[in-house]
Amino acid sequence: RTADAAGYQGVFISSHSADIYNLKTLRSMQGSHFHLPIYRVSREDMLALARQNDLQILASTLSEDSVDYQKVKKHEDFLLVMGNEGQGISQEMTDAAD
């Protein structure tokens, strides 16, 4: 839903993500799954794809190393990593972020 509202071109979800066809997930997506392509890939494949296509990797975190998103120089094409509200993103994705 966030990607749809922001005008993103697609969504990659990791193999650890919730089932996008779970009824609770479908309700929360509010129809966005009809507007965007959604791909389920492993973290390793997602990172490899980003690197092969020279995509900047931006990650949402709450830590002392975090930078305000308004201060990040953005490229036209990038990969934005977002976690769930309870656990956030993995350390692997945090370490891979630009």
Provide the fold topology.
Blueprint: H1 2-6, E1 11-14, H2 23-29, E2 38-41, H3 43-52, E3 56-59, E4 78-81, H4 91-96
Average pLDDT over all residues: 81
Number of DSSP strand runs: 4
N→C terminal distance: 24 Å
Could you spell the SSE succession in H and E letters?
HEHEHEEH
- Major beta sheet, strand line-up: 1-2
Helix proportion range:
25-40%
Total number of helices: 4
Helix and strand content put the structural class at alpha/beta
Structure description:
The protein is an alpha/beta fold. The protein has helices at 2-6, 23-29, 43-52, 91-96; strands at 11-14, 38-41, 56-59, 78-81. The strands form 2 sheets. The chain has a two-stranded parallel sheet. A two-stranded parallel ribbon has the order 3-4. The relative contact order is 0.18.
Produce a short descriptive summary.
The protein is α/β, with parallel strands linked by helices and 98 residues long. The protein contains 4 helices and 4 strands. The strands form 2 sheets. It has a two-stranded parallel ribbon.
Core attributes:
98 residues, alpha/beta, 4 strands, 29% helix
